[in-house]
Task: inverse folding
């Protein structure tokens, strides 16, 4: 039987890129995201790669919707083998101007949803003695940048959660790892490029080279295929002794 991966925020950007690599490897995929054409995206990938898919527009701020998604997808596929917590948002502002509602939303979506998702898939993973939890953190899970208080906090938090899950999962062949990407050109980053160009009165090209990729030694955006291939390896049987890690995929940003 094919393995099943549940990937949050998989109807855009990195999540969609990871889902595509898992589809090529014949996993069944549970898609999630707030894009209005999410159901269509899931169905098209299912058809293209000959795999089974489901789609849930579950809001990662709502624990009941998270639990319902896990219950219904487990009913259909029998189990979730791989959980990829990827859904995330960003807001950039100085601490004294940071909107409280943005802080709460970022912590809920980027961090607390991973707690609820893990709790929901864990008992079945324990029972079947196989589970792979992959959290998409960020280079900002390891280092800070100014004006990103909520995001950096949420990403450091998910690295901490990953370490605990690595320890708790060990007796059950459940591994947990965090992937920490540098900049990836997705809708989330395209919005930041436009916002920063306006805020600093710079061209978008200068924002990319002088602000974003400034900290990366490799002056290229990280590709979603690189992240998808790494996630696939972490999901494999061969990765059974890799757990509790936070892996930078950041063009050398964290080497400095
Ligand atoms: P994106 O905006 O392209 O995709 C985010 C996905 O999350 C979308 O599918 C969106 O619908 C979903 N989402 C947002 N809020 C949600 C909610 N409340 N409930 C359910 N789904 C929700 O962004 P991306 O760049 O692909 O980011 C994906 C993850 O990668 C995020 O956790 C982000 O922090 C992380 N990341 C991104 C970069 C980058 O440079 N793009 C770098 C490091 C880490």
Result:
């Amino acid at each position: 039987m094919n393995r099943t991966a549940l990937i949050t925020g998989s109807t855009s950007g990195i999540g969609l890129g990871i889902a595509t690599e898992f589809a090529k490897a014949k996993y069944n995929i549970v898609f999630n995201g707030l894009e209005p054409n999410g159901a269509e995206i899931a169905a098209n990938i299912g058809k293209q790669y000959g795999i089974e898919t489901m789609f849930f527009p579950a809001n990662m701020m709502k624990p009941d919707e998270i639990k319902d998604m896990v219950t219904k997808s487990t009913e259909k596929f029998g189990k979730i083998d791989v959980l990829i917590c990827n859904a995330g948002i960003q807001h950039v502002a100085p601490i004294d101007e940071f909107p409280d509602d943005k802080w709460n939303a970022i912590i809920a979506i980027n961090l607390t949803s991973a707690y609820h998702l893990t709790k929901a898939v864990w008992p079945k993973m324990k029972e079947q003695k196989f589970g792979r939890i992959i959290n998409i953190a960020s280079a900002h899970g390891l280092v800070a940048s100014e004006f990103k208080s909520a995001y950096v906090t949420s990403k450091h938090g998910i690295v901490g959660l990953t370490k605990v899950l690595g320890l708790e999962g060990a007796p059950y062949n459940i591994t947990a790892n965090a992937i920490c990407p540098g900049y990836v050109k997705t809708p989330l980053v395209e919005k930041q490029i436009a916002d920063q160009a306006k805020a600093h009165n710079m061209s978008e090209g200068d924002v990319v080279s002088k602000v974003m990729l400034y900290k990366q030694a490799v002056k290229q955006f990280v590709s979603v295929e690189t992240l998808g291939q790494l996630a696939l390896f972490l999901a494999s049987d061969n990765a059974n002794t890799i757990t509790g890690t936070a892996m930078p995929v950041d063009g050398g940003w964290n080497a400095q």
Residues 8-9, 11-15, 32-35, 59-61, 86-89, 109-110, 136, 138, 181, 183-184, 186-189 surround nicotinamide-adenine-dinucleotide (CB under 6 Å). Residues 100-128 form the longest helix (29 residues).
